[in-house]
TrEMBL record:
It is found in: Golgi apparatus membrane. Its EC number is 2.4.1.-. This is Hexosyltransferase. It comes from Helobdella robusta (Californian leech). It is an enzyme of class 2 (transferase). Transmembrane segments: none annotated.
Amino acid sequence: MANFGNVKQSPGYVKCSSHYDIPLGLDIQFDKWDFCFLILIILPRLYIYIENIDRDVFSSSNGWNDSTSSISSSSRYITVEVSGLGEKLLEIEDGPIVNPHNFNYKLNPGSMICSLESASQKPLILIYIHSDPSHDKRRLLIRETWGSPYNFKDFEIRTIFLCGITNNNTMLQEALELEYDRYRDIVQEDFIDTYRNLTYKGIMALKWISQNCMKALLILKADDDIFLNIFKLMSRLNTIMHDNGILKSNNNNINNNINKDINLFMCNVWDRMMVIRDPKSKWYVSEAEFPENYFGRYCSGSAYAYTTSMVPMMFRMSRHVPFFWVDDYYITGLLPSKMKIPVKYEEINRLYFLAPGLFLEKFSMNDGDGEESRLAIGHSHNINQFLAVWRMVLKKYANATMS
């Protein structure tokens, strides 16, 4: 067995005579047999240990498995490098869990939502929608309009609605369960569904996608009072994905046509949005909650799109970032800013018009050549206006394709 008696402290890594540096806080001199012992015995065990952490995290269909929460109470990195080649083999982080998201699913369609025929070569787009349990009419409207899986020929659309629970409203819960039994497109966890709990919905989305829909090319989030000209929006997103190398042209095999290493948000980008300090405002944030006067870069929560590659990292990071109720900033700004990977934001601000009082007027002009012709994302509280604009959209974009 290898002799580990010749050990001395080092500021940050282990020195190995065979040109291998291992930053574990010790300096150990190895001969060639010791090095073989390290490679054959120690490193495979470390690999299995890390694999088990990931498996524990995403295996449970009922929620996050907290078996890894006692590993460490302070952040650290474990890195194994081949110093001669500069190759990094492994990097993990664990730290104090301050936002465990200990909620259980009450309704969960599981991976069947994102299942595809084995022969399908169409890219998969997952849409998830923040919805109040009582908003059954809005959900039905979206299913029959821009959230329908039948709008496009060249890619697959899947839509889910995210809900929490209401306090002691048994009849509403029973109605939601009947709706779920019919459509199988509702995901519900047992947190209370309130405005200041919307961040829990965002984290639930990250958890559910990590467990059930990582095959999706793109994630599109919207609220249930948002109208999307889905054809115009997807045309723009498709162009952005090609421009950023996420989609490659002229390749019939979808598995070889996607670059999954690019982390990208496409949205109405807000930079240095001022924090509201007026206690009378719905969006009031106290200095105790958020001491800075401006938010960092993030996406408007009305609707935004992002690449699926970021989802597991964002979900893991959410356990180490304290809960903050401003959900669009927390999900699209704070979590990405904490990840040690490059994240890019593409502005599509010109596609948005979010004043509901002028929704019909602005989107009725969408077929012209003026500024309104650019609009794709609107805010509507009126079902009749919503349907009127959708009928106009269908006349123009019937049988739309992604190309």
